[in-house]
Backbone:
């Protein structure tokens, strides 16, 4: 059963903390100002503006500051300051707060992507708490008049009382990662076209529970004491829809990690895969990115939809880990319906 935090109202407090690296100092004040203008109160933990050797602080400090926000009854939503490299250092210390995280009265939305997607995955698969794979604080710094619909979608989801959340794929995407100092919005130049691996189907529909994140960091959990993924997925008879984002992996490394996930049973009841666009995925000799996906996943005999609006190549969909989802693919576009069903 999935536990869903309460939605937000005007005047509710968003807590910002640097669960990985600290926020870009040029943007944090602008982002906070924008969130306040959108109707929220905002507080931040002491590590939010720190950045040294790829992290804001040591793992123990990051866990403690995260839990401080978690235990604060006034905080309704926790937003990751930024991506980074070493979020995994938090996990041993978060385990020390298991009783706090299990308390149903204290749960709240946690949001981020890239390295913070590991935290989201941990909270959903271990504690069955729904989490939000969407923008970090940095994206919210762009001028409000340039806010892309993806940002508006996230805000709309957080404020809506509906249990159903509908999005459609976007028309254009940006050819490079979002720039830290850019306040003028995404530079959308390329046409979005979702594709199905090894299939000429123009129309499919698939349902299941949504789970996923950045492959680069999810793979760190595999086989550790923090890995409860197979047990989590097996509890949903409706099956799973996996979404995956590749930040830095070449084709060979992507295949290796997907192979191990599969061998550990992570994909045993997968109904479909949504694979995000990537700047990486370089071929190794004649082993290409699409060959990696095919070799790892194709004989599962489920749809593998790639070039999706997920992760590091903006814009991106707002994805709710644990939600019941229906994906409708039609001629290179999708409609994503997510329902907050326990």
Residues:
């Amino acid at each position: 059963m999935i536990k869903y935090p309460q939605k937000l109202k005007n005047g509710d407090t968003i807590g910002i903390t640097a669960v990985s690296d600290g926020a870009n100092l040029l943007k944090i004040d602008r982002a906070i100002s924008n969130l306040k203008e959108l109707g929220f109160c905002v507080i931040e933990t002491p590590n939010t503006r720190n950045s040294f050797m790829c992290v804001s602080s040591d793992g123990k400090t990051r866990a403690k500051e995260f839990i401080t926000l978690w235990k604060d009854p006034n905080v309704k939503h926790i937003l990751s300051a930024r991506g980074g490299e070493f979020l995994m250092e938090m996990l041993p210390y978060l385990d020390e707060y298991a009783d706090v995280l299990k308390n149903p009265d204290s749960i709240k939305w946690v949001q981020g992507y890239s390295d913070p997607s590991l935290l989201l995955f941990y909270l959903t698969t271990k504690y069955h708490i729904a989490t939000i794979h969407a923008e970090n604080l940095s994206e919210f710094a762009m001028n409000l008049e340039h806010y892309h619909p993806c940002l508006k979608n996230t805000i709309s989801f957080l404020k809506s009382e509906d249990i159903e959340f509908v999005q459609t794929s976007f028309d254009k995407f940006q050819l490079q990662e979002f720039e830290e100092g850019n306040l003028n919005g995404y530079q959308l130049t390329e046409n979005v076209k979702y594709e199905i691996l090894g299939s000429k189907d123009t129309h499919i529909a698939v349902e299941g529970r949504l789970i996923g994140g950045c492959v680069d960091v999810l793979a760190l959990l595999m086989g550790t004491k923090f890995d409860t993924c197979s047990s989590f997925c097996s509890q949903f008879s409706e099956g799973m829809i996996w979404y995956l984002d590749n930040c830095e992996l070449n084709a060979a490394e992507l295949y290796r990690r997907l192979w191990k996930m599969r061998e550990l049973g992570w994909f045993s009841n997968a109904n479909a895969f949504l694979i995000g666009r990537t700047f990486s995925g370089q071929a190794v000799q004649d082993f290409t990115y699409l060959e990696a996906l095919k070799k790892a996943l194709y004989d599962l005999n489920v749809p593998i939809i790639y070039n999706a609006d997920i992760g590091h190549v903006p814009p991106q969909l707002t994805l709710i880990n644990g939600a019941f989802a229906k994906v409708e693919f039609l001629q290179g576009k999708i409609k994503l319906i997510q329902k907050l069903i326990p």
Summary: The two ends are 5 Å apart (CA to CA). The longest strand covers residues 203-214.
